[in-house]
Design goal:
Helices cover about 10% and strands about 35% of the residues. The protein contains two helices and 27 strands. A seven-stranded mixed beta sheet has the order 3-4-5-6-7-20-10, with no helix packed on it. The longest helix is centred in the N-terminal third of the chain and has 18 residues, at about 1-20. About 30% of the residues are buried.
């Protein structure tokens, strides 16, 4: 009986390496992995030498002793809410632009020109307020914006058949798509010429926001009265000059899927000819932007 138990123990010791996995390294060696409750994987990084370049540098600031530390993209000073390597996206807080609203701070623009970040098509532009004619600035020659009329706060309505709710349909709230590859958020707020001064001095706001988040969290203009920021999604890419682009069994790097001299949505797209995004292949996990960062299963042959 003892002999059978000893044999079973030795068999388990040989089988364990077959199912063991390598702990995925997500940051450069000796670099901080988190800021508060936010994971900071490479090419982002906290501290000297921990990020791919200055655009991906993250400041980790602690505002009060009782609150968790908050992460900010150093170059554009936007608070980081989540970083996703797999989709090459980062969620950040974006400012709400306002006019005629008491108790709100100065309007802040959001300029990422020259950076590897662009507003994702998963965002929408929303304007709220009575007779609010909101236009995006600095996108010439295009004109993008919307106008919200004065009416009851019936921003959502659902059908009896359970279809998707109509959201922000015009009364006190309007929405529209944003131009592709948008890197600047700046908006002007005003009233329509035929408004007869209705709503001219009332509070008006405009913002770019993650559409999925807005459906769950913004049901009326009052919902944003106390907000200074809303979450947006940024797409990001790497310049192939910054990393060693080498496809292998473990990872794959390729240019972003974009059109050259074509039309998609609201804007002519420009392909970043030397840009790339990487991902770990099926069966591997980890960080494709680190050398040997994509790891798989450890397999040990029984002798």
């Amino acid at each position: 009986m003892i002999s059978r138990r000893v044999s079973l123990i030795f068999l388990l010791l040989f089988l364990v390496p077959e199912i063991a996995t390598v702990s995925a390294l997500m940051t450069k060696p000796n670099c901080t992995e988190t800021c508060g409750n936010i994971s900071i994987p490479f090419p982002f990084g906290i501290g000297t030498g921990c990020s791919m370049n200055d655009w991906f540098s993250v400041d980790c600031n602690k505002t009060t002793a009782d609150s968790p530390s908050r992460a900010f993209l150093s170059r554009i000073n936007m608070e980081v809410l989540k970083i996703s390597l797999g989709s090459s996206r980062v969620r950040v807080n974006s400012p709400i632009i306002s006019s005629g609203c008491s108790g709100r701070g100065a309007n802040l623009s959001f300029d990422m020109t020259g950076s590897p970040f662009v507003f994702s098509s998963l965002n929408i532009f929303i304007a709220m307020g009575c007779n609010n004619r909101a236009l995006l600035n600095r996108i010439e020659p295009e004109i993008v914006g919307c106008t919200s009329t004065c009416g009851a706060n019936n921003l959502t309505s659902s059908s009896t058949e359970g279809k998707e709710k109509r959201y922000c349909s015009g009364n006190n709230c309007c929405q529209t798509r944003i131009p592709s590859n948008l890197q600047v958020f700046s908006a002007s707020l005003g009233t329509t010429e035929d408004s007869n001064d209705q709503g001219r001095n009332q509070c008006k706001v405009a913002f770019i926001v993650d559409r999925a988040w807005s459906l769950d969290n913004i049901k009326s203009p009052e919902a944003v009265q106390d907000m200074q920021h809303v979450p947006v999604i940024l797409d990001w890419f790497m310049y192939s000059d910054d990393i060693r682009v080498e496809n292998s069994e473990a990872k794959n790097c390729s240019p972003p899927v974009q059109l050259v001299s074509g039309r998609w949505g609201l804007s002519t797209l420009t392909l970043y000819s030397n840009s790339t995004t990487c991902s770990c292949n099926l069966g591997y996990d980890g960080n494709p932007y680190l050398p040997d960062g994509c790891t798989g299963m450890i397999r040990t042959r029984l002798m």
